[in-house]
């Protein structure tokens, strides 16, 4: 049986942080991550649930995740939402997440190709 305790407690959606030019602010993302750590939050749900993910490019979503991971001292469970309008972009984000996060991937299955992607991801990080 898997230990699911890392999914217990407060795990809010993580909002992307922007600078005055409308670009993702790595510093602000890291500051918000440290804020959550200092407040005792158990995890964050990155690039999903807030509704903003459909307005961010895959590259912007990568920057957010990379900076959450850079500021995480290991105390946060990071769940990365990888669903996109295209399966190819979902694959790209999933591969990126596997490289820089701890294999907590979430996606909405909306097509047969998404189910195939889910099956492939499960071979990397089984449920």
Structure write-up:
- This protein is α/β, with parallel strands linked by helices and 127 residues long.
- It is built from four helices and four strands.
- Helix 2 links the parallel strand 2 (43-46) and strand 3.
- Helix 3 packs parallel to helix 4.
- The protein is globular and about 30 Å long.
- The termini are close together.
Helix-and-strand structural type:
alpha/beta
Termini separation comes to 11 Å
Rg for CA atoms: 14 Å
Q: Low-confidence spans: pLDDT under 50, at least 5 residues?
A: none
**Average pLDDT for all residues:** 81
- Portion in beta strands: 5-15%
The helix content is 40-55%
For the largest beta sheet, what order do the strands appear in spatially?
1-2-3-4
Q: Given the C-alpha coordinates, what overall shape results?
A: globular
Compressed to H and E, one letter per element, the order equals EHEHEHEH
Number of strands: 4
Helix count equals: 4
Biggest sheet features: 4 strands, parallel
